[in-house]
Amino acid sequence: MGILSYEEGKHLDITKMQPPCEGDAPDTKLVFVERFILYDRVAHSWFLVSIKDNDTDFCNKLVEDICGQRDLRIDETSVPKSVKDLCRPEDQHITYEFPSRDIYNQQFALCQEYLHSGDSYELCLTTQSKIFLPQYLNPWDMYKVLAVHKNPSPYSSYMNFDDCILISSSPERFLSWGDSTDKPARKVAELRPIKGTVKNTDSVTLADATKILRTPKEMGENLMIVDLIRHDLSSFTEDVTVDALMAVEEYKTVYQLVSVIRGHLREKGYTGIDILSSSLPPGSMTGAPKKRSIELLQHIESLQPTMMAGGRRGLYSGVAGYWSITDDADWSVTIRSIVSYKQDKENTPSTNVWRIGAGGAITVLSEAEGEWEEMHVKLSSTLQTFL
Question: What is the DSSP string of 119-163?
Fold first, then answer.
């Protein structure tokens, strides 16, 4: 299990990228997990799993230790409502750096130039915001604030490596594969791209959001990515079906327009990992056509001073997930996430910089004001962790 950065995608032409930033943001972090504890939310049962040889003594001892605790689940009442509450009184004034609105308008205008000239027909323009936090904060406590109170999501994840930390509340599955229910002994792959977002407030109902999202602009954004994914998937599967087209799903902070594309892997020659390696970075985070859109965005996004050097996105808009020894896998798109890099050049002896990425798809029907607001809706779903 682990994480793959946006830049890890094989469609990136490295010769056209700026030089890497001396390794401040890793491209790949994967670990082989031999022991883990699993909680089944349906059966409300805990499982201890080990694939190590001769591991019975360790497992029995761990079970004894676990059974000595009343409940392994997180007590919601013990989780602070804000990261501010985790800070010492003198550190509760948190410093932020946000993207420049003027530069965003310039970026939007550049996108429109490329769209009207035919270089691309959809560009997923993203930004980064920075939060400066005391080094003593425990990232696991930060994750609990996000996952329990602020933005619980189906693909939330917490990964703490030696050189980077990911705190994610992603609502978007990128790619999963597993046993098919209708074709025994076959694997089926599924992708669930999200394109189209409306803020979830007390005054916006599901019916209201559906009406807003059922517009040519929002539906066009989603449909272009569906077509891109259908093309990518067809190289590895014997069939491609769209099981859901632009369904509106409700989450705590937003309503999203979601499509579901599935295909049975061909009987010989390919596995899910082939689809993963070929499909990176996620099309919902690039635009279409993918390769040219990536090249254009790398230049456009580098104009914002809050981005990492060279316009690198890093872990944001890459993927996070697992691939099991039974050849089942599930990978989410790294959005609605907070990321810290040990080698980030803006870290200080007492402060770590945490980065939040947010953006949206630009088409010829887009307006700068609307796209700026949509970016802030997505940003706030994670930023509220600190408020």
Answer: S-SEEEEEEEEEEEEETTS-HHHHHHIIIIII---TEEEEEE-SS
